[in-house]
Amino acid sequence: MTDRKTSWIESANDGQTDFPLQNLPYGIFSANGKTPRVGVAIGDMVLDLAVLDEAGLLPAAAKGAFDGDSLNRFIALGKPVWSETRQRLTALLSGDDKALEGNPALRAAALAPASWVTLHLPVQIPGYTDFYSSKEHATNVGRMFRDPENALLPNWLEIPIGYNGRASSVVVSGTELHRPNGQIKLPNEARPLFGPCRKLDFELEMGFIVGKDSALGAPVSTAAAPEHMFGMVLLNDWSARDIQQWEYVPLGPFNSKTFGTSISPWVVTMEALEPFRRDNPAQSPEPLSYLRQQARNAYDIDLEVLLRADGAEDAATISRTNFKAMYWTMAQQLAHHTVSGCNVRVGDLMGSGTISGTTPDSYGSLLELTRNGAEPVTLPGGAKRGFLEDGDEVVMRGWCQGDGYRIGFGEVRGRILPAIAA
Amino acid sequence: MTDRKTSWIESANDGQTDFPLQNLPYGIFSANGKTPRVGVAIGDMVLDLAVLDEAGLLPAAAKGAFDGDSLNRFIALGKPVWSETRQRLTALLSGDDKALEGNPALRAAALAPASWVTLHLPVQIPGYTDFYSSKEHATNVGRMFRDPENALLPNWLEIPIGYNGRASSVVVSGTELHRPNGQIKLPNEARPLFGPCRKLDFELEMGFIVGKDSALGAPVSTAAAPEHMFGMVLLNDWSARDIQQWEYVPLGPFNSKTFGTSISPWVVTMEALEPFRRDNPAQSPEPLSYLRQQARNAYDIDLEVLLRADGAEDAATISRTNFKAMYWTMAQQLAHHTVSGCNVRVGDLMGSGTISGTTPDSYGSLLELTRNGAEPVTLPGGAKRGFLEDGDEVVMRGWCQGDGYRIGFGEVRGRILPAIAA
Prior knowledge:
The structure is a homodimer of 422-residue chains.
Chain A: E1 26-30, E2 37-42, E3 45-48, H1 49-54, H2 72-76, H3 79-94, H4 104-110, E4 111-113, E5 118-120, E6 128-131, H5 135-145, E7 162-164, E8 170-172, E9 177-178, E10 181-184, E11 193-196, E12 200-201, E13 204-210, E14 229-236, E15 239-240, H6 241-247, H7 255-258, E16 261-263, E17 268-269, H8 270-273, E18 277-278, E19 298-299, E20 302-308, E21 316-322, H9 330-338, E22 349-351, H10 366-369, E23 377-378, E24 384-385, E25 393-401, E26 406-417
Parallel strand pairs in A: 6-22, 8-16, 9-26
Antiparallel strand pairs in A: 1-2, 1-5, 2-3, 3-4, 6-7, 10-11, 12-15, 13-14, 13-22, 14-16, 14-17, 18-19, 20-21, 20-25, 23-24, 25-26
């Protein structure tokens, strides 16, 4: 029994929901033929902030920030407004303030059952950067594709390696993606062939959403980095391994990644995640000056990947891991991103890189789980998968486990459609 | 003597200007304290399209597309509207239609001397991709950094290699940039140091601006590609060679490029460039099916790079080359970019990659011109440069030489400020 605050929306209090009163993640939803607007998930309901704003129940500083089709306008208002809005929502949904609970007409207008609404991409994303911050993942990949004896490249322990991703093809959970066509170089052929990817994979990642612009030429320090973070999402960095292997030298992955990246629809705020900050992982050698950090920048977030084979009833859990083991923290990623003078903008998405644990059942990609397809995973019912087949669906879930409650991210889900005839 | 049409704006007719009646490039300008809006360069004047639109002199289909701070709204209207607008402007500026020429009050309101206006970034850029399409450049770089005997990587002749760039730091000509700080690994040191770049370079490129959205999962063929191109700009892909060399394996260049990319303020339309289409360069081996092209997709554009050393009076021309020698065409770049299903959007910027010719005086970077700094260029007055020093200014110019006129791109100019104290 804890004394944490509960909501008059009962489904928020069962200890199992991803969306208790302590979470209050933001997203964009539409329902009832109304235009997309900002909502907050609470239990099995979605709260319409445009309606609450209209009713004058949200902070004056946020007036008019909730009726658009992205969170960007709200995010751009800055951290004090995020906090004030969170406090208001907590008061309204706990019943400390009766303005919503005690007004049946307003409740009917502002609360929609989550199963009735359509969720959209929460953020208009001006830039998407993907990092590579799990030491286990980088080691596993290096072992398979480069030198098993020197799996980790020399720069990896110095640089939070990252690269620019493609923002246009970031899609919301539930969006189906076609298997990409591309160039594939088979070992015994002189030239590549052109055709559908044969090694289609997922990558379990998380991403943070930038909450504050930085100026060109003005680096963000690790100490200032948390000021620039609004919240986090689950992220599936779909990857075409065969296309990637042929294309990635010398300028990095391109078509093997740009065909689609899926994120979860609810953005969990850094404020909601605050109780789940943990000590930073040990780093050796000690990072260069601009990467050193004082604050605890790791987060304890349980993660799992489920795979539903085409035609199967149920999805099987094929990986379980935790975000806290990432070698480079988000604060270090942002400090590195901006240390050259590069600016970031409200809504930018920063992917963590594949999150792999130390044991074979905690790897964040099929590449690692199946050793590049050589040791397929067996699913309940007997289906085997080295890589993804058409019709397969991947579901990623994440949550912070509190005492009697959890701060959940919901899920990011995606199904693979056959390749388009080329 | 040619019979080409001339303008009643005399400065457009001297055969030397970049901006004759045949050009009509679009940009964003502000003057007189008015908000930024769309302008067209004509001789030494800038024509205010928001004023012309207000006066009812532009196509009805383009109504309201010219008073914003980017070209995106106009571009999104599509090719027929671009053509109709060009025809209207040609009629108004040639005097075939007297509505502007014969109206002194309107002329005064709509025409500003170019030297009086401020030019802004012409396009709001949702995505920036940079290719690597000069065979000479790829060979020169491979020779220096990889294997002199096998300078061209095996995938280069098959793939129009490209990577995602950073859109947030694309700036308009004239923007000064700080020398980036970053990680530099010296050969005899065990660990990298952190400090200002010591090998700061430019890259002479051009870029095209995407004129039409494509849908996720819907590749754009080489045949359809020209429909998706609005126009072209000059592009300087500033590069920190020492940072690049340490960071780029395995995910490509990041901080070495993201600190800034400069483009010219005037977007020269594909329609204006039409007379300068040329036969495609020979490609061997014949590209895979999706990269084959029927149309003439090469363009004859003369290019030069000037360097003004810090404190020097004059800039010296250090490179002269031509865009037509690029191995992969823009149509092939776009077909490759989208073949995986990746979508493109109006305003996307697609860089060509460094444009290097076959002779040492036609290379598009100091890296190549000076053999990685080993053979500095000597400038008039005696200054030597292996790489850029603080206060140095780089100017790139481009033009298509017609019979008695030229279609010019103006210039992209940028000066290097000292590194910010880290």
